[in-house]
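Help: why these numbers?

___
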Amino acid sequence: METILQGAGGEVVIGPGQPTAIIGERINPTGRKAFSAELQAGDLSRIARDAQAQADAGAAVLDVNVGAAGVDEVALLPQAIQIVQDTADLPVCIDSANPEALAAGLRVIRGRALVNSVNGEMAKMKAVFPVVAEYGAAVIALCMDDSGIPATPEARLAVAENILKEAAAYGIAPEAVLLDPLVLAVGADHTAGQVTAEAARLIRANFGCNMTAGASNASHGMPERQVLNTVFLALLIQAGVNAPICNPLTNGLAVRAADLMLGLDEWGMRYIQTYRAALKAASE
């Protein structure tokens, strides 16, 4: 099963046997006080720099989120997307909890976008799936529902099945759904990483769907977070997560290393290219 996204520069194909598609997470005010303040002031100048830096570091898709406190997302999100599309020719992942903002963003998309996100809550699916279907987008679906985040891999698999069934009712095919097995902090539960990885394996085995995950969520509250993020990214990729949401500036080489070791990078060319890009960026 392949999920195809479209940017100005061509297609990005996400699927088994394909190199891992990094969804660049940097254009997001969460945890970035300076960026949040800029958005509140209507200053979008940082967006082009972040888009270009992530593209140079090997991102395949760029997540765009302007959800700072007090920001009018319906007005600002399309502007941010336009800047990203003018800067980098990559597909866009439109990141908002506001269905009106999602629709506003989709109206300015050049190609086929990814929507971030929906989950198994019925109200959420009824709000987001019609928008996704109308614009022919793909969508990230979190494996949680009205009862919260399931504690076991099997329960997350059941939520994934319900999401796929509901998506089909709106004419959204499984290839258009990137399932997210959900990453929780290992500092709060040392089994959290194992549960996520096993949920990913079950989803791949049962539905063949492509998957995303925010790998860095696992390391919250722990020392040497980058070590944990790097290791967990490799484990997730092996489990079937082929479009992780991460920072390509710090995680890009680790992702390419995982691809190489899993036989997804012929002659190691992507690894070498990413290494050279990192050296160039460091020298500048």
User: Anything to note?
Assistant: The longest helix spans residues 153-169. The chain is about 45% helix and 15% strand.
